[in-house]
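[audit] Reproducing an earlier prediction to check determinism. Same input, same settings, fresh worker. If the tokens differ from the archived copy the diff job will pick it up downstream; this log only records the rerun itself.
[audit] input (366 residues):
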Amino acid sequence: MSRLYRAARPLLFRIDPERSHALSIEALKRGLGPRPNIPVDRRLSTRVAGIAFPNPLGLAAGYDKNAEVPDRALRLGFGFVEVGTLTPQPQEGNPKPRVFRLEGAHAVVNRLGFNNDGHADAFERLCERQRKAGIVGVNIGANKDSTDRIADYVAGVNRFEEVASYLTVNISSPNTPGLRTLQTGSELDRLLKSVVAARNGLAAITATQRKPLFVKVAPDLSDEEIGVIADGALTHAIDGLIVSNTTLSRRGVENEPGAGEAGGLSGRPLLERSTYVLAAFRRAVGPNMPLIGVGGVDSARTAILKMEAGADLVQLYTGLVYGGPDLPVKILKGMLRTMEKMGVDHVADFRDRSVEALIEAGPPPA
């Protein structure tokens, strides 16, 4: 953490978390963020799902919900940025207050509920930056009051396919009632079939290369549910899985102020469970499907842990709240130092080193 952010954080944490988030977006819009010396090193570059990533560290969906500052965020050192979650129609989300810091655990509980400005506004912003360099994915969701949620996802594919580097189908938020049921059974099959058909159809019509299509899943899955999702992803040739979203568990934070609030928990307490689920998905899908590891990443060590558990790429968001805007570059430099110490030639060489050990140890307590 930079000295400046360390000094400012106590003051920032006196402000409501959602207000602080809005202020950070505004600061980036005004060019007030840091201008770090971003490591550019072939050992960090990697090709995943046909995309050449300058480094494997990404900003997870949830920060730049409305695609307001993707390029400013990339300048913090991220190899890619994921905007959203975006729904067809604008929606305010759940009543405030709906974001709570658990400072002692370096965690956050949120029940935002896909608050966003809708497809149209974000599409216009992404069109404006379409010819700029940088990898920007678009995370799509369904409106809370939708009568056909699968149609909402198809609408997201149709709207953003031309302006997104990749698309993420988010069916794992705990804050939209019933959304996680799309992770199972016939609904999952119908969803995957529909979004893949939409993506493939657009590519055929426009004679362009298909954009990678990822699916974001929850950490609160049984081994049986992991198997079902893995089978569906393989059957429908999904390009990758993002593992994972926030958790409903409060294990390890029971005594933290705010832990009793409804919503999804993110940050350090999510690391153990999400990393086990990541390893379980790697075993279930085999070596070829790309996986993106999310949950508890706030250091070079935790980023490497994700890769050792099967991730090709990693993402973070809550880590920024506690580590500050210099965190991405700090992680990248730390990864390079670790590689030098361990004699690792390329970041991809970390992948899968601990998968079997994690599976053998079994899932952590719920």
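[audit] rerun output stored. Observation attached for the diff report: The chain has a mean pLDDT of 95.
[audit] end
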